Amino acid sequence: MLAQTPPMGWNSWNTFGWDISEELIKGTADIWNDLGLLDAGYQYLVIDDCWSLKERDKNGYLVPDPNKFPNGMKAVADYVHSKGLKFGIYSCAGTMTCAGHPSSLEHEFADAQTFADWGVDFLKYDYCYKPHNIPGHILYKRMGMALRNSGRDILFSACNWGSDNCHEWIRSTGAHMFRSTGDIQDNWESIKNIALSQWNKEFYSAPYCYNDIDMLVVGMYGKGNVALGGCSDEEYKTHFSLWCIMNSPLMIGCDIRSMNEATHSILTNKEVIALNQDPEGRQAYSMEQWNNSDVKIYIKPMTDGSFGIGFFNMGDSDGEGSLQFWDIGLTASSGYGLHFRDLWEHEDVGVFTENYTCKLKPHHCKVFRARLVKTK
Prior knowledge:
- The structure is a single chain.
- 24% of the residues lie in helices and 22% in strands.
- The protein is an alpha/beta fold.
- It has 2 domains: 8-276, Aldolase class I (TIM Barrel, Alpha-Beta Barrel), CATH 3.20.20.70; 285-374, Sandwich (Immunoglobulin-like), CATH 2.60.40.
- The mean pLDDT is 97.
């Protein structure tokens, strides 16, 4: 079964855009396991837009650009597979891709079979240049049906940016994840705005079809295709924590070949990733309706009865967040408290019976795993 938990991997777009090549993909695959990324859960290596020629061949098939991929796409997929990874590629539901290359509109079954023959395991399916006369749900159902009949298990990543109320119909297309936001950029305002846009949307994400709030910008530091400003390490930590607790797919966007230690420690924090990869796949809900301050609090029920609890200072000044346990179902008379473990400091904090309060610097976060313990 595909996507029982949110998919994890790497995508070329955020850093490299159209500047992709066989050398880049092989080099990324070569260092993947040395960095412990597969061990941390990242398994999909995905090539985004601009991999093909601008025209199909005389038989109507997609053709990898020979200047970028001289040995063809099957050879690249085979190389990625030899590293124990899964291979992903990109197409589009519109009349052409976002960068002006051939899309899969009216070629869904032929392209799905081509992808399967090449050994593709993941398809990102974009929404640029959508024809006005065909509803979005039909476009995605076409490719969903084609992929499911290609003879290969291919994870279907629907990228229509939340358009056309896609949360109401996207599961019916067979998609395993769906973009609910516009494109992310490598700056704090973009991260904050995407996170805040998810309030009251926790009901639309579940195992086998996850709410995708776009790829990660952790470790880009203002360099690359979407690098408009850059962030501090603490902001990247907050970004990663939000994506994990909200159960978004985790697709690395930086150049992992030059990853520094701070970026590596963020992207491979197994205690935080465990929140994201919990089998029940529940997206965290926000306490915003009880909390009008810049410090937002998110609660994620976990399979084992514990909770992921995150405090996030979205503001530009020091802030304080206070969680009253009554608001999440734990009364003072219950005889139970919550044992807090700090997932970034990797240390136990203590047992609290009625509330927990913490202070945060601007754009900082604290993330905990809280377990019920008997106190009486």
